[in-house]
What we know:
- By secondary structure, this protein is of the alpha+beta class.
- The protein has two domains: about 5-80, ATP Synthase, domain 1; about 85-130.
- The chain is built from two helices and eight strands; from the N terminus they run E-E-E-E-E-E-E-E-H-H.
- Strand 7 (about 55-70) and strand 8 (about 75-80) form a beta hairpin.
- Helix 1 (about 90-105) packs antiparallel against helix 2 (about 110-130).
- The radius of gyration is 16 Å and the shape is elongated.
Amino acid sequence: MPMHLEIVTAERVVLSDEVDQVNVPTKDGRVGILPRHEPLLTILDVGELTIIKDGATTPFAVSGGFMEVLPNRVTIMAESAEKPDQIDASAAQREYERGQKMWDQAGEDPAQYERANELMHDAQARMDSKGGNQ
């Protein structure tokens, strides 16, 4: 018995499909969701989200957002979500380098360090997802 998965960003519906399982990076660690899972609301982390449908695994690079789980429905509201073939590896590399420069120039500004870390973490997750599919 599959469950309905919807992945949305502010710009678009990325995926709306029936799936067998979804594995998601959350602030508390990776979470695997199967049909009839207990209700859950959690904060997403940056990383690779994987979907399993009919034995095939499909990865997505996600960054931040929320996940709501109901017994037969999962809704992921992500800041960004991309399949590896949609990721521009050179843009991700430039984003990582921009984060490194911000880190180097942050001085004593903790907010600047946090933003730089977020940029580098997001870019690294995108590059890892892209590399894992080549």
